[in-house]
Amino acid sequence: MRKKRVAILISGRGSNMAALIEAARDPAYPAEIVGVLSNVAGAGGLERAARAGIATATLAQQTFAAKAEHEAAVTARLEAWGVEIVCLAGYMRLLSAAFVERWAGRLINIHPSLLPAFKGLDTHARALAAGAAEHGCTVHFVTAEMDGGPVIAQARIKVLGNDTPETLAARVLLEEHRLYPEALRLLAGDGAPYRPA
Ligand code: GAR
Fold first, then answer.
1. 10 Å Cβ neighbour count for 119?
2. Cα 57 to middle of ligand 1, angstroms
3. How far apart are CA 77 and CA 64, in angstroms?
4. Does the CA dihedral 196-138-29-90 come out positive or negative?
5. How far apart are CA 37 and CA 56, in angstroms?
6. pLDDT range class, residue 98, cuts 50, 70, 90
7. Which of 74, 110, 115, 121 could join 138 via S-S bond, C-beta 3.0 to 4.6 A?
8. Residue 1 binned pLDDT confidence (cut-offs 50, 70, 90)
9. Does residue 111 have its Cβ closer than 6 Å to ligand 1?
10. Does domain 4-188 have CATH number 3.40.50.720?
11. 3-class SS of residue 156
12. For the whole model, what pTM was predicted?
């Protein structure tokens, strides 16, 4: 089996990144993590990735004149790593339609809600405010519509009567760490990548 070459894009602590790195240590896992790229200098996940022996890169958007130039640099780095699949893991910057099209069918994201519910930020507080009985996380293909691409996999949990945004976030995060490696396994293990219409 030839493992698919995967890069992870992060902006922060990188706990989902770490879950993917851990899963990919299994010789039977169909993907290898060849690089971690951050758009935020000093993101905690970078050091974690480096400790795991993975190549890292920082491309802080403030150092580029325009979004298109930043994204061109990101794509150049991904191409230099020979990347076939890109995983967004807490990458908190919207990507342009041009970037999304360049990686269509090979660019996936994890989002902390049961999409299409609660796109955007503060999902846990919003789920509580809405009185949702269930909450969870979604891995989906990235399209030009924010948090709107086809769903690959979801994990659900029950909302408890005494949940706060923090307790809910912590239980969802545990599910994220299980779901993301499973979703990447599905995508990487299947020969032809799915291409959304
Ligand atoms: C995760 O909960 C992820 O689902 C969320 O950011 C967190 C990153 O944590 N992503 C989004 O909200 C994207 N819209 P991590 O850096 O520990 O993986």
1. 15
2. 19
3. 15
4. positive
5. 6
6. very high
7. 115
8. confident
9. yes
10. no
11. strand
12. 0.95
For 57-93, give the secondary structure using H, E and C: EECCHHHCCCHHHHHHHHHHHHHHCCCCEEEECCCCC
Beta-bridge mates of residue 156? 136
For a pocket test of ligand 1, which of 15, 16, 174, 184 has the largest count of ligand atoms closer than 8 A to its C-beta? 16
pLDDT in tens, 151-186: 999 999 999 999 999 999 999 999 999 999 999 999
User: Closest ligand 1 atom to the C-alpha of 14?
Assistant: 16
The residues that are catalytic are 111
Provide the residue ranges of all domains of the chain, joining segments of one domain with +.
4-188
pLDDT digits 0-9 by tens, 100-126: 999 999 999 999 999 999 999 999 999
Cα–ligand 1 centroid distance for 98 (angstroms): 23
